[in-house]
Amino acid sequence: MRKRSNENSAERQPRNGCEIAWQPGVVQNKPGTGGAIGFAELARATPDGYTIGFTNTPNLLTIPIEPKTTFTWKSYDLIGNPVDDLGAFTVSQSSNIDCLTTLVKYAKASPGATTVGTTGVGPEDHLAMLHLKRRQA
């Protein structure tokens, strides 16, 4: 089974990024709802020093905006940031679109011809698309 990128990072990071003696542990994935299931479980965990979560910051910030959740970013203490997770607008290499301005011009000139994909409703890439749409209206 192929591991997702944050699984690999979570398993690697404590050894590479902390000045502590590594102890064997268990990586327990809590998939679903963009991370909300795992974020809620981590927020409920007993602060025993043995439970460490690897969170996705954009989702951690945006999921509580819409649905009622049992967590917010204030539910956690940051102990390390191994990744800068930058977003990007991308198109197929075979497209004639070479910049965001060209994409916007094309979308305006061809209503209904442009398709947008995001990771779901609420994450930062979805909010970025909504922001672009609002600015171009």
Short key terms for the protein model shown above:
mainly alpha; 5 helices
Explain the overall architecture.
With 137 residues, the chain is mainly alpha-helical. The chain has helices at 5-17, 36-44, 57-62, 100-109, 124-136. The chain has two domains: 5-75, no CATH class; 100-136, no CATH class. It starts with a helix and ends with a helix. 6% of the residues are buried. The model is unreliable at 1-17 (pLDDT under 50).
Structural class: mainly alpha
Shape: elongated
The whole-number mean of residue pLDDT values reads: 78
End-to-end CA span:
44 Å
Q: Please tell me how large the radius of gyration is.
A: 19 Å
Low-confidence stretches: 1-17
Note the total helix count.
5
Q: How many E strands?
A: 0
What fraction of the residues are assigned to beta strands by DSSP? under 5%
As a percent range, the share of helical residues equals 25-40%
What string, H for helix and E for strand, traces the elements in order?
Answer: HHHHH
Task: Write a compact overview of the structure shown.
The chain contains 5 helices and no strands. With 137 residues, it is mostly helical.
Give the SSE map:
Blueprint: H1 5-17, H2 36-44, H3 57-62, H4 100-109, H5 124-136
